[in-house]
Amino acid sequence: MTIWLAIGLTAAGCYLLKLIGLLVPAGALERPLVRRLSALLPVALLAALTAQQTFSSNSALVVDARGAGVAAAALALVLRAPFLVVVAAAVAVTAGVRALGG
Predict the structure, then answer these.
(1) pLDDT in single tens digits along all 102 residues of the chain
(2) Which residues cross the membrane (predicted)?
């Protein structure tokens, strides 16, 4: 029963949040600061999710092969490699570190 209560509260909260978003005046959304922040928000959320998934395990901070893979991907991005090369570099470095026992 508790799970259904949580699901219902989450659904109601999402609906209310959507309703509040529709009630915001259009003029408030056209301000330059709001436009800049809305453009940067997805990048910040993706970076936070990536960091959380890379450096945590069961609510503990860990540094393992995943960190090396992210570092390799970041280096490939700095060198302006194509996306598939970035992913391949991350996979290869992560697998290599894990194979070496890390």
Answers:
(1) 899 999 999 999 999 999 998 998 988 888 999 999 999 999 999 999 999 998 998 888 888 899 999 999 999 999 999 999 999 999 999 999 999 986
(2) 6-25, 37-55, 67-97
Tokens coding 68: 């090396």
Q: For residue 9, what is the enclosing H or E element?
A: helix 2-23
Q: Residue 70 and residue 30: Cα distance in Å, rounded?
A: 36
Is the pTM for the entire model greater than 0.85? no
Nearest CA to 96 out of 54, 59, 62, 66 is that of: 66
Helix (H/G/I), strand (E/B), else coil: 61: strand
| 80 touches 62 (CB < 8 A) | no
β-pair partners for 61 = 56
